[in-house]
């Protein structure tokens, strides 16, 4: 039986100034509120049992960022809520959606917002919580989390905003919180799978207001589904970023050499499977790049939808805490 739940949570947090020029944006603790509508899976699919009957739904957040240069913010996310223990006392909530920032950077009216140059942004959320049953119909979920706003370097400035949050979520279910009996089926071993694909993106570099540049990747993936939940693999590819030859680094001028735009890379990947959806995480390194100012390590976060032989994905690439570009891509599963 699928359960529908309704939740509300007071939140409190602080901006994490991951860049030196953001220190003055931290002026106090951030109050916020969250409203949540969620649906518990009913056991009709194998992965429902593998994840101990997770929930999915929509969350709406409001924040007072305690800065005249940022104003208020709101975020609407689609999320998965994954129990991490059999007794469901510990869980992880992952969300992806859109955010609105009241006071974006403006050259004339809001010059001191060094974090984000757009009102519309991507919103990411990651929360770890415990679960306390109050009654047959009410539970309490105290937790901690990180909420992130970024436009994927589509519009400068874009150092992004990271908020460390404390949350106290009160959840009501009209039908109670009983879950179906978990059935553990033996996992059928899978073969190594090979994919080939491409992804594209757009980004802006300094100075603010300059033209946007194209980003593209071609890649090959080798991956193997190790359990009902988890897939492991590696990706090898070539990244083309047309902005790199125009990047000024410190006191040095841009090279104006188009060879700088190409970077061969290798990454490891881990994927959580919610057939046909999946959430993919990657950590990678560049192999002998000409342009090295971004550092040698990058991260990628993708939401993947699997068709029969094709997959489509959307996501974000970053260098540590700084977003590099958004990505939209497709891949084909080779025989």
Key terms:
17 strands; Porin; mainly beta; 335 residues; single chain; 8-stranded antiparallel β-barrel; 2 domains; 1 helix
Q: Can you characterise this structure?
A:
With 335 residues, the chain is an all-beta fold. The chain folds into 2 domains: 4-172, Porin; 193-333, Beta Barrel (Porin), CATH 2.40.160. The chain is built from 1 helix and 17 strands. The strands form 2 sheets. It has an 8-stranded antiparallel β-barrel. An 8-stranded antiparallel barrel has the order 10-11-12-13-14-15-16-17. The two termini are 38 Å apart. The relative contact order is 0.13.
CATH architecture of the largest domain: Beta Barrel
Radius of gyration: 21 Å
Task: Give helix and strand order, one letter per element, not per position.
Answer: EEHEEEEEEEEEEEEEEE
Number of strands: 17
Annotated CATH topology of the largest domain: Porin
Topology:
Layout: E1 4-15, E2 30-40, H1 46-50, E3 55-64, E4 72-83, E5 90-101, E6 120-130, E7 132-133, E8 138-150, E9 161-172, E10 193-204, E11 212-225, E12 230-241, E13 262-274, E14 277-287, E15 297-306, E16 310-319, E17 322-333
Antiparallel strand pairs: 1-2, 1-9, 2-3, 3-4, 4-5, 5-6, 6-8, 7-8, 8-9, 10-11, 10-17, 11-12, 12-13, 13-14, 14-15, 15-16, 16-17
């Amino acid at each position: 039986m699928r359960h529908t739940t309704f939740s509300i949570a007071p939140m409190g947090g602080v901006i994490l100034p991951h860049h030196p020029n953001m220190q003055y944006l931290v002026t106090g603790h951030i109050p916020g509120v969250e409203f949540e509508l969620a649906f518990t899976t009913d056991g009709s699919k194998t992965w429902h049992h593998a994840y101990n009957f997770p929930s999915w739904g929509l969350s709406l957040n409001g924040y007072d960022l305690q800065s005249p240069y940022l104003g208020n913010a709101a975020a609407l996310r689609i999320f998965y809520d994954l129990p991490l223990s059999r007794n469901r006392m510990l869980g992880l909530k992952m969300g992806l959606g859109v955010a609105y920032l009241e006071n974006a950077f403006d050259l004339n009216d809001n010059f001191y917002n060094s974090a984000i140059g757009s009102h519309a942004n991507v919103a990411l959320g990651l929360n770890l919580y415990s679960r306390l049953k109050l009654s047959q119909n009410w539970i309490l979920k105290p937790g901690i989390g990180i909420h992130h706003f970024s436009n994927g370097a589509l519009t400068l400035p874009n150092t992004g905003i990271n908020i460390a949050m404390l949350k106290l979520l009160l959840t009501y279910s009209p039908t109670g919180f009983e879950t179906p009996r978990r059935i553990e089926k033996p996992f059928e071993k899978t073969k190594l799978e090979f994919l080939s694909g491409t992804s594209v993106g757009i980004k802006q570099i300094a100075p603010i207001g300059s033209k946007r540049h194209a980003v593209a990747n071609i890649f090959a993936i080798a991956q193997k589904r190790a359990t009902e939940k988890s897939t492991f693999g590696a990706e090898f590819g070539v990244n083309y970023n047309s902005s790199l030859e125009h990047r000024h680094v410190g006191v040095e001028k841009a090279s104006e050499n188009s060879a700088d735009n190409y970077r061969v890379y290798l990454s490891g990947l881990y994927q959580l499977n919610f057939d046909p959806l999946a959430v993919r995480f990657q950590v990678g390194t560049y192999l002998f790049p000409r342009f090295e100012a971004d550092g040698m390590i990058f991260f990628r976060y993708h939401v993947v939808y699997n068709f029969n032989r094709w997959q489509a994905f959307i996501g974000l690439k970053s260098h540590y805490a700084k977003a590099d570009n958004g990505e939209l891509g497709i891949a084909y599963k080779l025989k």
